[in-house]
Amino acid sequence: MPPLSGSLPSTALKSKRMGYIVMEFIEGVVCSTADARLVAPAVQFLITIKGPTAQPGPIATPSSSTANQRLWSTNRGRSVPEVEKYGLRLCLSDMNQTNFVKDRENKIVALDFGATCFLPVSFFELALHNHDPFTHVLRQLIVHPTSTQSDASSVASGCLVPYDTNNLGLPREMRAKTAARARRRLTTALRDPRFRLEANPAS
Predict the structure, then answer these.
(1) Residues near 122 by Cβ (< 8 Å), separated by ≥ 6?
(2) Contact 44/92 with Cβ under 8 angstroms?
(3) 12-148 classified as CATH 3.90.1200
(4) Domain boundaries, the chain
(5) pTM to 2 decimal places
């Protein structure tokens, strides 16, 4: 397999509140479970990339405080052990096999970094616990830093799934704003002439 390489995107556009990065078009075929052994070294390389700053989250996204500062401000201690030991790593949160393409030279290209952030290693461990066959094979092949927080992250993630939202921990005023935006989107959709509600026929 050819040497692995990678770099952060350098071309970006911004329109109003949205930011965009320019991606190269990759000609190739979507990887299958049989390609997991080719994909594993690429993922192994990506998780070695450390965050350019101590701020968790997407690249260059402003944050009010670092992970350690958040814990300090709530009097829970001054540090997160795994952050102290490993720093923040590039976390591929979406291991869907359609996000990996094999080009004509048999090189693996990772696509769709929309859910990728610099996070503590426990988040990557959580991403590897999807139950699809592709991720299952990757989990056997990738060596990654171990975390004492992965079980807690898994429980927290499972608690959010029934509600289909990650807003449960937001302050009340922020939850209200989020709910208001959702209502506006629903109202807009209901006004769309393409949207129709038909009464169930009487039995």
Answers:
(1) 82, 147, 148, 149, 150, 152, 153
(2) no
(3) yes
(4) 12-148
(5) 0.57
